[in-house]
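Proteins fold reproducibly. Next comes an illustrative record:
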Amino acid sequence: MLQIDQISKTYPGGIKALKNVSLKIKKGIFGLVGPNGSGKSTLMRTIATLQKPDQGSIIFHGDDIVNHPSKMRQKLGYLPQEFGLYPHMSAEKLLDYLILLKGIEGKKDRKELIDYLLSITNLQKFKKRKVGAFSGGMKQRFGIAQALIGDPDLIIVDEPTNGLDPTERNHFHDILSDIAENRIIIFSTHIIDDVKELANDMAIMHQGEIILTGDPIQLIENLNGTVWQKIIDKHEKEKFENQYPVFLSKLYCGKLNVKAFSKTPLQGFEKCYPSLEDVYFTTLKKCQNNETISAS
């Protein structure tokens, strides 16, 4: 269990990046979703002990990792949004170097670990290729391989599918799902489909705060019966947004599919089964309108 209790962080200039954030995260994949600038990366860096919060505590396996960061670093694998590689080294040699830095000195042990890490990330046949020649998806898979050195109990991945094509994104999802059984993986993203496909628990962040938490399936079910949609001409968008509680409008075959939140039927709209995207956008809309958000 990872327990985060009332942590806050203010950057120079008075930017409040985290505001009394509290979370309890158990084994499996935890999706942290929110718009750019919502505080997701700040929270990830704080959990990874790359920076200290101004206040609050983070407890992992009973250890206070704010005051004893080395306790976390022994158990952590981290794939940040941007991570450096030595582009002229092969995948095999770079992993060997990183494993040495982790303190694994036996040549046979290192080779076995390299083979294992390249195998589970589907990079075995590319082990002699320079990592600078890897595609974006291959680099992200290599990032997971290096994050798994030392068999960590907690892995943090920050916006890992940005820029990946659908095939590479699916490969990356498969790897995360396979390695999540006996550890915590915190998956930070602004891509709702990533959370829908991977996470068994999630939180939505907005302006440095956690505004909703819960099981994605249950959060979708909680919204059932309150989402209505209508196809309209694009020039009607402003009129409908002024007249109805619209939370989302998307292009659909040259027109707009507008969605509105209401506990009672809306004239001219048809009821639709909600998606996790609807959960996300209705939650943000309520927050922006200063309405009460009920978290599970």
Remarks:
- Residues 220-288 form one domain.
- The longest helix spans residues 107-120.
- Residues 217 and 233 are 32 Å apart (CA to CA).
- The radius of gyration is 22 Å.
